[in-house]
C-alpha cells in the first residue's frame, strides 16, 4: 500500500489553466516531457456532460483504494474543462516507463472509435492542446518531446490515446498556440 499523494480536484478553463501553470514551481520534481492518453473507459458518449467533481472523486477512490497506487494522471481533459488531478509538481502514475519523467494527461474518450476532429471530441481536442501548450511554456519543454502512451514499450495500452489522435497535427496546434499566447517565452520549432 503506497502513500496517496492526493489530488487538486479543481477545474479550469483554458485561460484559467494557463494562469495556473505560471504560478507553479517544480522544485522537488521537474518533468521532462508530457504523455498523452485517452481514458478509453469511460468513453465520451458515456459522460454526456463531461467529468463532474463526483466523477473526479470516484477516480480518486479507484486509483487510491482499488489500484492502491500512490497517484494517478495529472490532468483529465474533457469537452468542458481541464481538471487537475495529481498535483502537477509531483510525479504521477500513468505510463510504466515514464512515471518519474513525465506528466500524464488523460483525454476523456475512446479515440480508436470516437471522433477527435468533430463534435464533442473536437472540444476535448482543443482543450488538450490548451493544456499542453502552457505546460510546455512553463516548463520550457519543446512540444515535440511529447509522447503518446502507446509509445511506451512497457505499456499494455497499445492503442492509447487512439488512432484518431494524430501526433504531428496535435503538435502543430500546440506550437501554433504557443506562438500566439507565449510569444517570446518559447521558441516555436516546426514539426517535421
Ligand atoms: Zn494511456
Describe this structure in words.
This protein is of the alpha/beta class and 192 residues long. It has one domain: 3-Layer(aba) Sandwich (Lysozyme-like), CATH 3.40.80. The chain is 31% helix and 12% strand. The protein contains four helices and six strands; from the N terminus they run βαβαβββαβα. It has a six-stranded mixed beta sheet. The radius of gyration is 15 Å and the shape is globular. Bound molecules: zinc ion. Zinc ion binds next to loops.
What does the secondary structure layout of this molecule look like, with pairings?
Layout lengths: L9 E3 L1 H9 L10 E6 L14 H14 L8 E3 L4 E3 L17 E6 L11 H21 L7 E2 L18 H15 L11
Parallel strand pairs: 2-5, 2-6, 3-5
Antiparallel strand pairs: 1-4, 3-4
Report a brief summary of the structure:
InterPro entries: Amidase/PGRP_sf, Amidase_domain. With 192 residues, the protein is an alpha/beta fold. 31% of the residues lie in helices and 12% in strands.
- Work out the helicity level: 25-40%
The total domain count is: 1
Label the structural class: alpha/beta
Order of helices and strands: EHEHEEEHEH
The CATH H-level homologous superfamily: Peptidoglycan recognition protein-like
What is the average of the pLDDT values?
94
* CATH class placement: Alpha Beta
Enumerate the distinct ligands: zinc ion
The parts where pLDDT drops under 50 for at least 5 residues are none
The CATH topology comes to Lysozyme-like
The 3D shape can be described as globular
Percent of residues in beta strands? 5-15%
Counting H and I runs of at least 4 residues, what is the number of helices?
4
Task: Please describe the biggest sheet, giving its number of strands, its sense, and whether it closes into a barrel.
Answer: 6 strands, mixed
InterPro entries: Amidase/PGRP_sf (IPR036505), Amidase_domain (IPR002502)
Pfam families: Amidase_2
Protein name: N-acetylmuramoyl-L-alanine amidase domain-containing protein
Domain N-acetylmuramoyl-L-alanine amidase: 30-163
Amino acid at each position: 500500500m503506497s502513500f496517496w499523494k492526493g489530488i487538486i480536484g479543481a477545474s479550469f478553463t483554458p485561460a484559467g489553466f494557463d494562469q495556473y501553470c505560471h504560478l507553479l514551481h517544480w522544485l522537488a520534481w521537474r518533468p521532462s516531457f508530457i504523455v498523452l492518453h485517452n481514458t478509453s473507459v469511460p468513453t465520451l458518449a458515456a459522460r454526456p456532460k463531461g467529468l463532474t467533481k463526483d466523477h473526479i472523486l470516484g477516480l480518486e477512490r479507484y486509483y487510491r483504494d482499488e489500484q492502491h497506487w500512490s497517484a494517478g494522471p495529472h490532468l483529465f481533459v474533457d469537452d468542458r474543462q481541464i481538471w487537475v488531478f495529481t498535483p502537477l509538481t509531483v510525479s504521477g502514475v500513468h505510463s510504466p516507463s515514464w512515471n518519474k519523467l513525465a506528466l500524464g494527461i488523460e483525454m476523456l474518450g475512446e479515440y480508436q472509435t470516437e471522433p477527435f476532429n468533430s463534435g464533442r471530441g473536437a472540444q476535448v481536442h482543443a482543450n488538450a492542446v490548451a493544456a499542453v501548450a502552457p505546460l510546455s511554456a512553463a516548463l520550457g519543454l519543446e512540444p515535440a518531446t511529447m509522447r503518446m502512451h502507446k509509445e511506451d514499450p512497457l505499456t499494455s495500452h497499445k492503442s492509447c490515446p487512439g488512432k484518431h489522435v494524430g501526433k504531428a497535427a496535435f503538435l502543430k496546434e500546440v506550437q501554433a498556440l504557443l506562438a500566439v499566447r507565449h510569444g517570446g517565452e518559447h521558441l516555436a520549432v516546426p514539426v517535421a
